[in-house]
Amino acid sequence: MKIHCKYDELLDVELALKLFNPKNSNNHPQEQIERLADIIKYSGWRKAINISKLSNKIISGHGRVLVAEYMGLEKVPVVYQEYDDDIMEYLDLTADNAIASWSELSFEKINEDVLELGPFDINLLGLKDFEAVAEDKYPIEEEKDEKCPVCGK
What we know:
By secondary structure, this protein is an alpha+beta fold. The protein has helices spanning 13-18, 30-43, 62-71, 86-98, 107-117; strands at 9-12, 49-52, 58-60, 75-81. It has a four-stranded mixed β-sheet. The longest helix has 14 residues, at 30-43. The chain starts with 8 loop residues before the first strand and ends in a 36-residue tail after the last helix.
């Protein structure tokens, strides 16, 4: 597995599974794990697992650890983070899960980009039920000069 991110250590997956944070409120359905596994198989490991030096628990990357287990990997890249206190640690844990849900994807822009890039497995975008649609499939109607039905002008 190619690793494209900076990391402090390669940690055994079995140990990483024991570092799951009980305060993590994010759930990872099997369908998500399988899709993320496909993405990681294709593009390699791009984000390390963040572990708190304060609690020795995972702050972000629970899903990626589950993917590593699903893929049968032995190790995952991790970085260790300093936190001043439990509150700062919890804020990072929760915000990591929550803040991404605020974003709004432009499927129109993604569609344009996908069509420009050419053929590839669009499932690797991580989007659920996305299908690129060629622009020529839905031609833009030209404006018609409408005439008055009474006078013809």
